[in-house]
Design a protein that fits this description.
The structure is a single chain. This protein has four domains: 4-225 and 306-391, ATPase, nucleotide binding domain (Nucleotidyltransferase, domain 5, 2-Layer Sandwich), CATH 3.30.420; 227-305, Actin, Chain A, domain 4; 394-507, Substrate Binding Domain Of DNAk, Chain A, domain 1 (Sandwich), CATH 2.60.34.10; 511-602, Substrate Binding Domain Of Dnak, Chain:A, Domain 2. 37% of the residues lie in helices and 28% in strands. It is built from 15 helices and 29 strands. The strands form seven sheets. The protein has a seven-stranded mixed β-sheet. Strands 1, 2, 3, 4, 11 and 12 form a six-stranded mixed β-sheet that branches. Strands 22-21-25-26 form a four-stranded antiparallel β-sheet, with no helix packed on it. Strand 27 and strand 28 (484-489) form a beta hairpin. Residues 501-506 have low confidence and may be disordered. It binds adenosine-5'-diphosphate and magnesium ion. Adenosine-5'-diphosphate is lined by residues 9-12, 198-201, 226-228, 265, 268-269, 272, 335-337, 339-340, 363.
Length: 607
């Protein structure tokens, strides 16, 4: 059974599989090779991908996008709060986790980001199953290199809810490096820089490739920088123009702002190939149309500080990798936003005119590499590609709090994973201390208050002794997916405790995952029922029109009276009227109509 690679993007997702030793990017049922990571809920159905995007402006309150931005974050998180302000749909606080609140089949429903993620994953999986003609159960899913432990776990949970066995999570830029490296493996070491600027996140990775081994040396990035930020800047600029022209402020009108953002996104793309465009929105607010010219220069100016930030991150990552710009052999561009001419210019300036690599499609590179890696992990290699190895790194330093305030780093950032670090000298800070609270943090700052807490655990009943006497062995383990387990153990007493998950951040537990899995099945069934209903409707309609046509035929007219014909015609129009009113009719009811007409019609035995 093949395993697939899924790039679960903030804005777009992409799925690929290895077939006959070649990576295939799989097109969805619309024929598109990338699928919007959007899920919408209507009165009678759930839509995922292109269909959800199509209906977004009419159904903006129930169309969820960018769920990935909330994955693994608590409701109170600053970025969550600022995102909520921009969104036209509702996000509520449920046990400290953000949940999307929507209307589905005239009922109020709430979904956590993992569930929305799982719906996108399910749709990608179905796309792949349709292509391969087999069930798929295993996948490699990609995450931004800068994703924290909690965000990785949330992604894994999303996979699990979708009923997928997540073989491994790999970093998006590393996946892109694989895609690039597959035809570049050679004995000479090549140093590459992967620049991935997507819709919501930005990642930079420096890696070396040699002898079918990809070694990541350093990563950097910003989990909150991407194409949507550029859209927002442009939308705010347009809103200011609208205010000036018409005296109407629309900043807090989420519907108007989201229409405007959509138009800006469109213009932004146009500005990547032409130097000017018009942003046009019909009936933006109070029935007034909006139209304003925008130039590429203006767009670049509106975003110049954000663009500069990307270059700063590149410089910092190179510093971490201990490399100078001239030591980089190749720059690989990944993510839709690398199509922006200004970004390319800035990179070319920084790398002193070195050519940017354009041979791999920036939208597909990540899924491409993930599929290659999935095949690499699968036992059945007959169909796969030649084996290779990746050695990734952890993006943030990991450590523990000491003396209630200081960060003691156990694993420095950019350490190769999987890894295990062990220390035997952790001890108490007060005399006769009988319990220790172990608090685990990630981040680069010396004070734990400036870092990000991952979780904590306690060991109690420690025999009282002077401070510094009890000794604890601490181990930090990071698995190949970048997920951390911390374990503490007192040899003299056998006391121990550990954490893998951070309940603090509202990580889903097994019971919840199972519940969501069951719900996902219910949704799938509801979607299937909806499809069956739609098919039955079409079948009835087709049938009715065929009957009507046949009744008008010369043969029929010659044989039967007008009265008889009217009888059938009436049934036909009754059924069409009924269909129009009963938009939610069950398949059985619809079929009953068809049978009824057929019975009537068959009496004339003309079919
Ligand atoms: P993600 O990985 O976050 O899902 P993608 O790599 O698919 O994102 O990139 C999506 C982003 O790329 C969107 O913000 C989109 O507006 C932007 N984008 C796509 N095409 C272009 C283009 N031609 N010019 C500028 N931006 C683009
Ligand atoms: Mg991406």
């Amino acid at each position: 059974m093949p395993a697939i690679g899924i790039d679960l993007g903030t804005t777009y997702s992409c799925v690929a599989v290895v077939k006959n030793g070649k990576v295939e990017i799989i097109a969805n049922d619309r024929g598109n090779r990338v699928t919007p990571s959007i899920v919408s809920f209507t009165e009678n159905q759930r839509l995922i991908g292109d269909a959800a995007k199509d209906g977004a402006s009419q159904n903006y309150k129930n169309t969820i996008y960018q769920a990935k931005r909330l994955m693994g974050r608590p409701y109170s998180d600053d970025t969550v709060q600022s995102d909520i302000k921009h969104w036209p749909f509702e996000v509520i606080d449920k046990e400290r986790k953000p949940y999307f609140k929507v209307q589905y089949k005239n009922e109020t429903k709430t979904f956590c980001p993992e569930e929305i993620g799982s719906m996108v994953l399910t749709s990608m999986r179905e796309t792949a199953e349709a292509f391969i003609g087999q069930k798929i159960e295993e996948a490699v899913i990609t995450v931004p290199a800068y994703f924290t432990d909690a965000q990785r776990k949330a992604t894994k949970d999303a996979g699990e809810i979708a009923g997928l066995k997540v073989l491994e999570l790999i970093n998006e830029p590393t996946a892109a490096a694989i895609a690039y490296g597959l035809d570049q493996f050679s004995e000479d070491m090549r140093k590459i820089l992967i620049f991935d600027l997507g819709g919501g996140t930005f990642d930079v990775t420096v890696a070396t490739i040699k002898d079918r081994v990809i070694d990541v040396i350093a990563t950097g990035g910003n989990t909150h920088l991407g194409g949507e930020d550029f859209d927002n800047r442009m939308a705010e600029h347009c809103a200011a123009i609208f205010l000036k022209k018409h005296g109407i402020p629309i900043y807090s009108n989420t519907r108007a702002m989201s229409k405007l953002r959509r138009a800006c996104e469109h213009s932004k793309r146009t500005l990547s190939s032409s130097t000017n465009d018009n942003v046009v929105v019909e009936a933006l607010a109070e029935g007034i149309d909006f139209s304003a010219p925008i130039t590429r220069a203006k767009f670049d100016d509106l975003n110049s500080d954000l663009f500069d930030q990307t270059i700063e991150v590149v410089e910092k990552t190179l510093l971490d990798a201990k490399l100078r710009v001239d030591q980089i052999d190749e720059i690989v561009l990944v993510g839709g936003s690398t199509r922006l001419p200004r970004i390319r210019e800035l990179l070319e300036e920084l790398f002193e005119g070195k050519e940017l690599r354009r041979t791999i499609n920036p939208d597909e590179a990540v899924a491409h590499g993930a599929a290659a890696y999935a095949s690499n992990l699968c036992e059945d290699v007959s169909d796969g590609i030649e084996q290779f190895t990746i050695r990734d790194v952890t993006p943030l330093s990991l450590g523990m709090e000491s003396c209630g305030r200081d960060m003691v780093t156990f694993i420095p950032r950019n350490t190769n994973i999987p890894t295990r670090v062990h220390q035997d000298t952790w001890t108490t800070t007060k005399d006769h201390q009988t319990s220790i609270l172990f608090k685990v943090f990630e981040g680069e700052r010396a004070a734990t208050k400036d870092n990000n807490i991952l979780g904590s655990f306690v060991i109690n009943d420690i025999p009282p002794e002077p401070r510094g006497v009890p000794k604890f062995s601490i181990s930090f383990d990071i698995d190949a997916s970048g997920i951390l387990t911390v374990h503490a153990y007192q040899r003299s007493t056998g006391l121990q405790n550990s954490i893998t998950i951070e309940n603090d951040k509202g990580r889903l537990d097994a019971i919840m995952i199972n519940r969501m899995k069951a719900e996902a099945e219910v949704f799938k069934q509801a979607d299937e029922e909806w499809k069956a209903q739609s098919q039955a409707r079409h079948k009835l309609e087709d049938y009715v029109y065929a009957v009507k046509k046949s009744i008008r035929s010369r043969k029929f007219v010659a044989r039967y009276s007008e009265e008889e014909r009217q009888k059938i015609l009436k049934k036909c129009s009754d059924s069409l009227n009924w269909l129009e009113i009963h938009t939610n009719a069950a398949k059985g009811e619809i079929e009953a109509w068809r049978k009824d007409i057929k019975r009537e019609y068959d009496r004339y035995q003309l079919l």
